[in-house]
Automatic annotation (TrEMBL):
Keywords: 4Fe-4S, Iron, Iron-sulfur, Metal-binding. The keyword Iron applies. It comes from the Bacteria. This is [FeFe] hydrogenase, group A. Its cofactor is [4Fe-4S] cluster. It comes from Alitiscatomonas aceti. The chain holds residues 194 to 571 of 571 of the full protein.
């Protein structure tokens, strides 16, 4: 591994290609790729495709050509994150208590680190639901454990992310179980493009292929996670009535769009839910100020550190705002064509809860409690 310096100076960005190539050539490893929602609408730009063009099925083809044993979509575990996070929100709403702070999302590791460093008073208000990447990491390691033991293999999880902060998240002590990380390596979108080029694969000309089974179905809610407001829209879908008008009401509530701060109120189950969606840490600071001064009150707040959300992550190809808008549209188009719209109706995920690795183990595998700064990693 070699290291490069993050342009923000906040973290050191480790390049992980060497580690992944080594695993791919190791016959004792079952190498699994999971691909984050935002990657599919940006990777093609590295190969002359238009911003926003959904290349997920070409990505699966390329990953198999590179040598990955199994390829899955992180949107599947985004469905798990929504189920767990909305359980938390529903429980808070049912208490009907006066709370100074809302439930904050915690799937962005740069935001979590910001809270630890600058606003430790908010730590108790962060959702304890792990990010989709870490949920999938834990589920995959548990799911393949019996087969690994039988075949003398070790599952090696590679996450392909739009994000450089995910490398730091993968190494956090909270996500190391039995001495091993649940995510073994994180590749950015640009690193995957570089591996594709190294093999001389003509990406734009690839035939599409499907993800592997059994994690082959994701909901529309899971795929819009990659754009600002996507987590909130998916969460509200789960809590709202199961009708098309309810879905439309959420869509037009003000949740969509790439503005840095979006605020809206929506009625769910006879109760007004005050919500904010924030992208960019400067905007997060502004919103925290409004909450702390008592000027604003929210029940649920989504915060993503990158302006526009993960579609504009530091691991993505460089882009202008217009390109980001197209990436965002690409995710909403993928949602539109999804047969399953709500995360809790994803049959792959419900089966895991009913009689799979999440039966009686969801709390253990899918939740995390971030420690006070003094006790956490530097
Ligand atoms: Fe990573 Fe940026 Fe997405 Fe946060 S918003 S998870 S830092 S890409």
């Amino acid at each position: 591994q070699c290291a490069a310096v993050c342009p923000t100076g906040a973290i050191t960005i480790k390049k992980s290609k060497g580690k992944v190539w080594n695993a791919l050539f190791d016959p004792t490893k079952r190498v699994i790729a999971q691909v984050a929602p935002a990657v599919r609408v940006a990777l093609g730009e590295e190969f002359g495709m238009a911003p926003g063009e959904n290349s997920i099925y070409k990505i699966y083809t390329a990953l198999h050509m590179i040598g990955f044993d199994l390829c899955f979509d992180t949107s599947v575990s985004a469905d798990m994150t929504i189920i767990e996070e909305t359980n938390e929100l529903a429980e808070i709403l049912s208490r009907n208590e006066e709370r100074r702070y809302p439930l904050f999302t915690s799937c962005c590791p740069a935001w979590v680190r910001y809270v630890e460093n600058k606003h430790p008073e908010l730590l108790p208000y962060l959702s304890t639901s792990k990010s989709p990447m870490e949920m999938f990491g834990a589920v995959l390691k548990e799911y393949y454990k019996p087969s690994d033991e039988e075949c003398g293999l070790e599952t090696f999880n590679v996450a392909i992310m739009p994000c450089t902060a995910k490398k730091m998240e993968a190494e956090r002590e909270e996500f190391i179980r039995n001495g091993k990380p649940d995510i073994d390596a994180v590749l950015t979108t640009k690193e995957l493009a570089s591996m594709i080029r190294e093999l001389g694969i003509q990406f734009a000309d690839l035939e599409p292929t499907a993800p592997d089974t059994p994690f082959s179905i994701r909901s529309g809610g899971g795929v819009i996670f990659g754009t600002s407001g996507g987590v909130t829209e998916a969460a509200l879908r789960r809590l709202a009535e199961r009708t098309n008008p309810a879905l439309q009401e959420i869509r037009y509530s003000g949740v969509r769009g790439l503005e840095g701060i979006k605020k809206f109120t929506i009625e769910i189950g006879g109760r007004a839910v005050h919500t904010a969606v924030v992208s960019g840490l400067g905007n997060a600071e502004t919103l925290i100020g409004l909450i702390e001064s008592g000027e604003e009150h929210f029940d649920f707040v989504e915060i993503m550190a990158c302006p526009t959300g993960c579609i504009g992550g530091a691991g993505q190809p460089e882009s202008f705002l217009e390109d980001k808008k197209k990436r965002s549209s690409g995710l909403y188009t993928a949602d539109k064509s999804a047969l399953v719209k709500r995360s809790d109706e994803n049959p792959v995920v419900t089966k895991l809860y009913e009689d799979g690795v999440l039966k009686d183990r969801a709390r253990e595998l899918l939740h995390v409690h971030y420690k006070a700064p003094a006790a956490s990693q530097s």
